[in-house]
Design goal:
This protein is of the alpha/beta class. It is built from 20 helices and 14 strands. Helices cover about 45% and strands about 15% of the residues. β10, α12 (about 255-265) and β11 form a beta-alpha-beta unit. The relative contact order is 0.14. Bound molecules: pyridoxal-5'-phosphate (PLP). Pyridoxal-5'-phosphate binds next to α12.
Length: about 425
């Protein structure tokens, strides 16, 4: 499979290059040259296949012969090596829980797949690779766990001191081994700006093989299709009609992966883009005008995005046909008050605990079903409620149980190196790891 740059269609690269480079010229996103179709027989009989086999069939066309079949089998098996259950909340709304991985959020899936592909591609290269990322919280943890203990790879994560939650901080700082956490006296923007400087610094790039684990990397984006198939496999057991699929959205990578799977033949009655106060896409769906905004801070903070970077991929999928897009996707914007009310109501009515992101999705789905009675579907549960204890416990007035993986993690010691917002300090660390 070849991938072309959405900003310059002449630039075409293979899977390996797209995975290593992350993005093309002019910061353009890569997009597959064709959309491989699922076999009908496969899609309507998913129960006959193991989760590993489904994941393999989902990914093999995108990887081609760049990774041998048996290696790709191992990679996808490790990618989905935790529970991804579909659970019924109400008669018409189910949830697919994507938060049983090591950092309790769906980003684990993309990070695990990408890290293993990268490790495979770089294993014969002789040089040690350094993955350098800035994080405001969630991404860093998923990347750290994805790359943990992989041979030939060091991970250096910059995060703003005192500005990530206690759980997030432990996920970044307690692993050790090949994961280095730098605690920066500054903001997330300072972290990002130092990382950018490092990528354009000649001496560092001569001495180290630096790469990023950016969320727009195709090796993080494409494997997100897998869990739409795994959810459908469970859906088909008790439902006949194609599901309405509702995705809590920020950068729009997740819903874009679902739409890609749909274009390949995955049955879906409709897609819902569930947003918080950052309503750029719901507004676009009304007006056909995409107007980036400054991000607004909300309770569902992983979706506080004012200029969703993956949306260009959705436009490309639909061939820039607004009518077709508007026909397939509905958008809703849910404010914090409604997010809190929904967590409370769903807990009281159904004894199910939503995190703020899934709550935005549930509220959006309810609204859509009110306008389109008789339909049914599932929302994507993107994070475990325990990652957002303040909002959730406040809404349901009950303490939430801490899952075992987290209990072990919280007991571990935090290991960081503190640096100032000074490029020389980062350079010294990168070159000497001390
Ligand atoms: C990243 C994230 C999202 C948003 O996903 P996108 O692919 O950026 O749309 C939603 N929920 C949680 C918990 C996240 O961490």
């Amino acid at each position: 499979m070849k991938y072309y740059n959405l900003k310059d269609n002449q630039e075409k690269v293979d899977f390996k290059t797209a995975t290593i480079k992350g993005q093309g010229k002019d910061k353009g996103l890569f997009f597959p040259e064709n959309i491989p179709q699922f076999e009908k027989d496969f899609i309507s009989n998913l129960q006959q296949y193991s989760d590993q086999e489904i994941a393999y069939r989902c990914m093999r066309d995108f990887v081609g012969d760049e990774i041998p079949a048996e290696v790709l089998h191992d990679i996808v098996s490790e990618t989905v090596s935790f529970d991804i259950p579909l659970k019924k909340i109400s008669d018409s709304i189910s949830v697919v829980e994507l938060f049983h991985g090591p950092t309790l959020a769906f980003k684990d899936i993309g990070a695990r797949f990408m890290s293993r592909c990268l490790s495979y591609f770089l294993k014969d290269n002789g040089k040690k690779v350094t993955v350098l990322v800035a994080t405001s919280g969630d991404t860093g943890g998923a990347v750290a766990h994805g790359f943990y203990d992989l041979p030939g790879i060091d991970v250096v994560i910059l995060y703003p001191k005192n500005r990530v939650s206690p759980v997030q901080e432990k996920q970044l700082t307690a692993l050790g081994k090949n994961i280095y956490a730098l605690e920066l006296n500054g903001t997330f923007d300072d972290c990002q700006s130092l990382v950018k400087q490092a990528f354009s610094d000649e001496e560092i790039n001569n001495r180290l093989f630096l790469t990023s684990a950016n969320s727009i990397n195709i090796a993080r984006w494409l494997p997100q299709q897998i869990y739409y198939l795994l959810a459908l496999k469970q859906w088909q057991v008790y439902e006949r009609e194609a599901p309405v699929i509702c995705v809590p959205s920020g950068n729009f990578g997740n819903i874009c992966a679902g739409l890609l799977a749909h274009f390949r033949g995955l049955p879906a009655g409709h897609f819902i883009a569930a947003c918080n106060a950052n309503d750029i896409v719901p507004e676009y769906l009304k007006t056909n005008n995409l107007i980036p905004q400054k991000a607004i801070a909300t309770l569902s903070n992983a979706m506080d995005v004012g200029d969703p970077s993956n949306f260009v991929r959705i436009l490309e999928l639909f061939g820039h046909q607004f009518n077709a897009l508007q026909h397939k996707i509905s958008g809703y914007s849910i404010d914090d008050q409604k997010t809190m009310n929904t967590i409370r109501e769903v807990y009281e009515k159904y004894k199910y605990i939503l995190d703020p992101h899934a709550s935005v999705a549930f509220a959006s789905m309810e609204q859509y079903l009110k306008e389109n009675p008789g339909r049914k579907g599932f929302i994507l549960g993107t994070a475990h409620p325990v990652k957002f204890p303040d909002a959730v416990e406040n809404a349901i007035q009950t303490e939430i149980d801490i899952p075992e993986v987290l209990e072990d993690l919280m007991k571990k010691e935090k290991k960081t190196v503190e640096i100032n917002s000074d490029f020389e300090e980062l350079r010294r660390f990168l070159l000497h790891k001390k």
